[in-house]
Design goal:
Layout lengths: L6 H11 L3 E5 L3 H14 L3 E5 L1 H7 L1 H13 L5 E8 L2 H10 L3 E4 L6 H17 L3 E6 L19 H11 L3 E4 L16 H10 L5 E3 L7 H9 L2 E6 L1 H16 L6 H34 L1
Parallel strand pairs: 1-2, 1-8, 2-3, 3-4, 4-5, 5-6, 6-7, 7-8
Helix pairs in contact: 2-4, 2-11, 5-6, 7-8, 9-11, 10-11
Length: 289
């Protein structure tokens, strides 16, 4: 039986265990291999993600084929997820191609428009057995972090209304993280997170922009209701840095040897993120035993 599955069952299982699922972006065969090896070692479910830019780069057919083959190598179920889908049309293409989970990111739209497009995607996806993640509030880029950005944090009352009107399976929330490299101290609004979690206790919450966030803050976020944690920037940085070192160390043109250190570098980070996401649940089980 194919092990690619919707993300909602994985998130529900994480909720019951009091932990989270690591959502790992991949960009090529090498980063995918790294994630598979990390998941094999950890024996945990993961969510494999691609952005629209990666879809443009690799093509949907290659992505789905590689992800399906990857999932068949793992003991635990895996989801293939569209990260930050910007339109209904893109979500529909991914669903048709075989993605088992999609995100529709209407966070820059008005509340009403965000609800409308998200609800349309939910109706299409659920008919195909595919899970949907929405976003309310806006998780921006570190390069655009200003005082104005704090105005786009998620409000609990809005989250409850959004989930009720759209039927999303998971909700990405803005509590202080951002995409890209952090230039200063990371500050997360845990009071806000707990209020959101209390307002929509049956909807798994998603943390974007987790690269560069300390293990301590990630564990605290998971303990406060986060069930899916996205990682991308750290993975790209590890891969690129390792490639630069590999290329500068000699004249070898064999790509298989050139890429090997980069795969290992990404695998190490992926494994650490998977283990952080899983460790909160283990700590809870230990304390209750």
């Amino acid at each position: 039986m194919p092990k690619l599955c919707p993300s909602r069952p994985l998130l529900d299982a994480a909720t019951r265990a009091g932990k989270a699922v690591a959502a790992l972006n991949f960009y090529n065969a090498e980063t995918l291999i790294a994630h598979v090896r990390a998941a094999q070692t950890s024996n945990e479910s993961i969510i494999l993600q691609t952005t629209e830019a990666t879809i443009d780069y690799l093509g949907l057919g290659i992505i789905v084929g590689m992800a399906t083959a990857a999932a068949d190598q793992l003991e635990q179920p895996v989801a293939l997820h569209l990260d930050h889908g910007g339109s209904y049309e893109l979500a529909a293409r991914c669903i048709d191609a075989g993605y088992t989970s999609v995100m529709i990111d209407g966070s820059r739209m008005s509340f009403a428009d965000n609800c409308t497009v998200t609800r349309r995607v939910v109706e299409l996806a659920h008919a195909a057995g595919v899970s949907v993640e929405g976003e309310l509030g806006h998780v921006g880029q570190n390069s655009e972090r200003t005082e104005v950005a704090t105005q786009f944090l998620t409000e609990a009352k809005d989250a409850a209304r959004f989930v009720s009107e759209t039927g999303v399976d998971a909700l990405a929330v803005a509590i202080g993280t951002a995409h890209g490299f952090y230039k200063g101290e990371v500050t997360l609004d845990f009071d806000r997170l707990q209020e959101i979690n209390a307002a929509i206790p049956n909807t798994p919450l998603v943390l974007h922009g987790a690269s560069g966030v300390s293990a301590e803050l990630l564990r605290r976020s998971i303990a406060s209701g986060i069930r899916k944690v996205n990682f991308g920037t750290e993975l790209k940085n590890a891969f690129t840095s390792a490639i630069k070192r590999s290329l500068s160390s000699g004249d070898d043109i064999d790509l298989r040897r050139t890429f090997a250190p980069a795969i290992s570098a990404v695998e190490e980070i992926s494994r650490s993120k998977i283990q952080i996401c899983a460790s909160v649940g283990y700590e809870r089980q230990t304390s209750n035993s």
